[in-house]
Amino acid sequence: MARAARPAPPAAKPAVKAAASRAARKAVWFLNGPNANLYGLTAQGTYGADTYDTLKRRCEAEAQRLSLALSFRQSNAEGELIDWVQEAMGKADGLIVNGAGLTYTSIALLDALLAFQGPIVEVHMSNIYRREAFRHHSYISRAATGIVAGLGADGYELAIAAMRRLLDRPGSRS
Questions:
Q1: Quick one: fold of 24-168?
Q2: How many percent of the chain have pLDDT more than 90?
Q3: Which one, of 60, 79, 77, lies nearest residue 69 by Cα?
Q4: pTM
């Protein structure tokens, strides 16, 4: 005797699908160091005309396009940046870091980044190798999977795209 075919399960409701999609999104924290909040507010030149808020909106749009959950943060305090790196452990899949002036001075920030298990992209608005000699050494680079520098505001979006690719790689920490 043949068995009756089971009816197909009901299709998932759109709200359930959207929640599942959000749950599958990778979390990326974008940490900006001292004075990044002044972008676009000082004389144009090294950092361009985009304000911090404009950069944040651009980055959020790029992250959404790439299905990343982005937390975009800025602090002038070294300790707060270190706290955020430590908080990101277990919460974020990847970090993008513009250490700003701390790039060249903070071994403590380097130590925190070395403890983070996911990929790290270091980003700078300017080409640090075309600037003063003291900017040619980055402590953060020791922990970074990759670096984006010298592309201005576009570099922020490119860092997010690079992070998406890194997170899509098997093993994730490159």
A1: Rossmann fold (3.40.50)
A2: 55
A3: 60
A4: 0.80
Hey, where are the domains in the chain?
A: 24-168
Give me the mean pLDDT over the 24-42 stretch. Answer: 87
State the pairing for strand pair 94-98/26-32.
parallel
Q: Which residue is associated with the tokens 């759109």? A: 14
Q: Which of 34, 35, 38, 62 lies closest to 49, judged by CA? A: 38
Query: Any alpha helices (H) in the chain, and if so which ranges?
Result: 14-24, 52-65, 78-88, 107-115, 153-168
In tens, the pLDDT along 50-97 reads: 888 999 999 999 999 999 999 999 999 999 999 999 999 999 999 999
DSSP 171: T
Average pLDDT, the chain: 83
Which residues are known catalytic residues? 47, 124
Q: How far apart are CA 95 and CA 144, in angstroms?
A: 9
Distance CA 101, CA 134 (A): 10
CA distances from 151 to 13, 65, 79, 98, 128 (A): 43, 20, 28, 13, 11
